Amino acid sequence: DFLEKVPAEQPVRILDSCRITPVTVLSRTADRIEVSCQLLVWNGSGLNLSEPVTRSLEVAVDGYSAVPDVAPGDEVAVHWDRLCARLTPSARANLEASTRRQLEVTNRRLVAAVSPR
């Protein structure tokens, strides 16, 4: 089976890093934040989002931060482990809905790619 032969860990990590991910800031030290987010995971036949996990990220990378005043409780977007924007509740809801739609489309394509014709 094609999908069983695909080593999923590295490609999924790359896809997840490239995905614009909504996160909730849990805590902050001077230069790092702890966030709660859902990661992209491969279940053997499709892509899904994990249960919430905690990750540590730098506030600034190479001296730059799109959200330098980020604080606990903030909702922000992350791309390639970098803060890229503060999210309003509606922006976060839109981003989450867009992610769900894209996962549905991608998973349908994966099923079609491996289904016998």
Descriptive labels:
alpha+beta; 3 helices; 117 residues; 5-stranded antiparallel β-sheet; 7 strands
Report what the structure shows.
There is one protein chain. The chain is built from three helices and seven strands, in the order H-H-E-E-E-E-E-E-E-H. It is an alpha+beta fold. The chain has a five-stranded antiparallel sheet. The protein has a two-stranded antiparallel ribbon with strand order 3-4. Strand 6 and strand 7 form a beta hairpin. The radius of gyration is 16 Å and the shape is elongated.
Entry summary:
By secondary structure, the chain is α+β, with helices and mostly antiparallel strands. It contains three helices and seven strands; from the N terminus they run ααβββββββα.
The helix/strand class is: alpha+beta
Which strand order do you get reading across the main beta sheet?
A: 5-2-1-6-7
- Gross geometry: elongated
Number of helices: 3
Low-pLDDT segments: none
Largest sheet: 5 strands, antiparallel
The overall strand count is: 7
Q: What's the mean pLDDT score?
A: 90
Strand-helix topology:
Blueprint: H1 2-5, H2 9-18, E1 21-28, E2 32-37, E3 40-42, E4 47-49, E5 53-58, E6 75-79, E7 82-86, H3 89-114
Antiparallel strand pairs: 1-2, 1-6, 2-5, 3-4, 6-7
